[in-house]
Amino acid sequence: MSVEPVEAVNRQFYTYNIINGIEIHLTIKVMRSLDSTIFSCVYDVAWSNSDQDLFDKISVAMTVFVMGSLVLNLVGPVRYGKSASFISTHPNYLNYNLTSKFVWRYGFIATILVPLLMVFVTPCSKIGNFCNAAGLTIDCLHYFNRTIIYPSKISPKATPQTLWFFLLMVLITTLHGFIQSHHLLNVHTSSVTSLTYLGILLYIVGASINSYHDNLLINLRNTSTTAGRLDSSSNYKIPTGGIFEYVSCANYLGELMEWWGYFMVTKGYPQFLFAIFATAFLGCRSRFAHKFYKDKFGGEYPDHRKAIIPFIY
Fold first, then answer.
1. Torsions phi, psi for 64 (to 5 deg)
2. Which residues, 6 or more positions from 152, have their beta carbon under 8 angstroms from its beta carbon?
3. CA–CA distance, 94 with 92 (Å, rounded to integer)
4. Sign of dihedral through CA atoms 194, 199, 204, 205?
């Protein structure tokens, strides 16, 4: 039996069976687009023999992660920002304080660097698909804002973050950068439909809402007279303007619109799971922030405001 050379993208596996003394050979073409790249070890780490097998396992892991995150956030908020004052002050190097500017810039940098690296070292056989290219552009534009633009505006009075939060952020964003970019560059394809253009529009509107209301919060913090510290609840003021007149977390509403637009453009399962994760995480986060404002300002805080979705939640 002759065996064809193994290729990086299409690997040939041969099996046989004996039926009535006849040897039957089966050729199975399996996509392994990361072979011969620095990411090839991912197949071994994830016990996967193909890209499809890899994403089957990733989908299960993401589903468990989303459910776990929802449960943990229902129990209590992730300890950063408004909830940073709940962090244990027990002397531990993981509780070492880092500036918010440093954490947001370098904690998210993997979402830019990993896709860029994937473009240079993997085949990128699916990037010609319009939905994939648009989706990857949406992902990178969001994180360019989060990594480059947003940190440059953060007030030095912003609440410091802990080392453990920074390390957790680096891990999650590295995995996110790999999963999303590999899926859209090398695995997934989708047809252009009206949903694609609706998703692009939803992203543009959501990104505008997110950026505008982030700026309102930054400007509000810049007027504070209290320097940033771990317990910085005295820094906060009632946000006003734009959709803040209707919800406590208008910036989160904009980000949710971005991620659901991202899913509508790509129509991929990993993108769907990430949109679900964002909804669960930011929904729980907004619930905490809404309660925080109401507890802090009491009767001064507008009764008609909801947490994240105007008139609903």
1. -60, -40
2. 101
3. 5
4. positive
Joined together, the tokens standing for residue 204 give 């543009």
Tell me the C-alpha distance between 266 and 179, whole Å.
14
From the list 260, 259, 224, 247, the residue with the least C-alpha distance to 294 is: 247
**Alpha-carbon span 71 to 280, nearest angstrom:** 9
Tell me which residue has tokens 């003021």: 237
Q: What totals of helices (H) and strands (E) does the chain contain, helices first?
A: 10, 4
| Contact in structure between 123 and 33 (CB atoms under 8 Å) | yes
Strand blocks (E) in the chain: 10-19, 22-31, 97-98, 161-162
In terms of DSSP H, where are the helices of 17-107?
41-45, 51-75, 100-107
Burial of 84 (0-12, 13-18, 19+ CB in 10 A): buried
Q: Which residues pair with 29 in a beta bridge?
A: 12
**Considering only CA atoms, which of 171, 161, 177, 187 is closest in space to residue 111?**
177
Q: What are phi and psi of 119, to 5 degrees?
A: -60, -40
| pTM of this structure | 0.84
Q: Burial level of 174, CB count in 10 A (0-12/13-18/19+)? A: middle
Which ranges of 223-268 would DSSP assign to H, the alpha helix? 250-266
Mean pLDDT by 10-residue block, N- to C-terminus, for the chain (313 residues)? 42 44 49 93 94 93 88 68 51 78 93 96 95 97 95 82 90 95 96 97 98 92 52 71 96 97 97 94 90 91 95 93
Residue with tokens 């860029």: 116
Handedness of CA 262, 268, 271, 275 (dihedral sign): positive
